[in-house]
Amino acid sequence: MIKRYGVEGGKGTGGQALPFAKAVEAGGWLYVSGQTPMVDGEIIDGGIIAQSTQAIQNCLDIMTEAGFGKEDIVHMKVFLSDARYFQSFNKVFKGFFAEHPPARVCCVADLVVDCMVEVDMTCYRADRR
């Protein structure tokens, strides 16, 4: 069975409706769509620390709504707009995941939203299969 969370999309920049689910659960797996440091359809002010914190928190909020916790995160993808943000992102990452660090990939990419970071997460719970 496949369950979709946030199918109504949520809001992107300028208040536009997003055409994808915030997360999809299938066979015990939860795939959280990429999250930027956005609140109410607007990118937050602040540097890489503030933006990283918000992007990760947005993923965690979606996971919590779906009934998953930090200990269920298996893998995370991180996209930074500048390689110089790597060390600062790692500090934020460690603050969130010191006890349950997931596997991770981090790369530099042009982001389609004018921000410094985007993250997504893949989670698993055997009891949800």
From TrEMBL:
Stored InterPro entries: RutC-like_sf, YjgF/YER057c/UK114
SUPFAM superfamilies, per the entry: YjgF-like
Example of a GO cellular component annotation carried by this entry: cytosol
Top-level taxon of origin: Bacteria
MF (Gene Ontology): deaminase activity
Pfam families: Ribonuc_L-PSP (PF01042)
PANTHER family: 2-IMINOBUTANOATE/2-IMINOPROPANOATE DEAMINASE RIDA (PTHR11803), PROTEIN HMF1-RELATED (PTHR11803:SF58)
Similarity-based family: Belongs to the RutC family.
UniProt protein name: Reactive intermediate/imine deaminase
Provenance organism: Leminorella grimontii
